[in-house]
Amino acid sequence: METLMWMKLLTVFSLLSGQIAITAASSLVCETYGSGIIQPLYDNPFYVRTSCASEFISFTYGKVDCRITLTRDDGLIVKVVIDINQMKTVLENGILHVKDNNVTLPYDDMYLHIFQYGIYTKLISRILPASTSIIWYNENSKITTFWVELDDKQVSVTSGFCVNNDTKNIISGSSCLTTTITPAESTDCDYTSEVVACQPNIPMETLMDLCLMNIVDISKENEKNVLCSYYHENVQSCDLDNNNQSPGNYLVNTWRTKTGCRK
Predict the structure, then answer these.
(1) Domain map of the chain by residue range?
(2) pTM for the full model?
């Protein structure tokens, strides 16, 4: 398979005098969203369903080591451990702990800055490059979207699902389960036929399988969250123009109505 360098577009909308102003920035990104869709750094996305803790990414920067592990329950992320040179930040069920202390936002010390970033939460470390950040979105104390932005010219990525789809990235335990998911037909994924226009480098069949696996055997409580996360992340890759006239603009403006996903 041809190697891909996936670039995430962070699109900022500003309503001024009834017009939408669009700015975009790009960086090398590894992301996970929905119930287990993973967009690695250099290849097409894949799907992993596990309730075990898993190594999302490990990387080094000089003498600084960073390792991030994620744990899911019913698909959504319920625990994140961010270990930067053995200084741990833990997000569990919506509660944030830094070095074993419960903290609130914004949080700022000599090493870390954690703050609201629009609808997201963003963490930056002062001992990592300024271009490196960790960002997530909370939905009812669970995380539907989590990603890391970095500059691969400054950091060396060593392991984790951001590198490859390897079962060694799953930290097995006696009370967790890893399941092989088979796509099952569902009309909930029909809108993928339009979203594919925003992902020209990913085959339609791959996108559809990801959507279908994403919602298999997920509780009714969480099914809409994981489905809307799938559509939201793919629509963010649409090409936009400042005149709000491109096909990408149309998808960005209408996808919530067509999918029933609320803001």
Answers:
(1) 27-179, 183-259
(2) 0.88
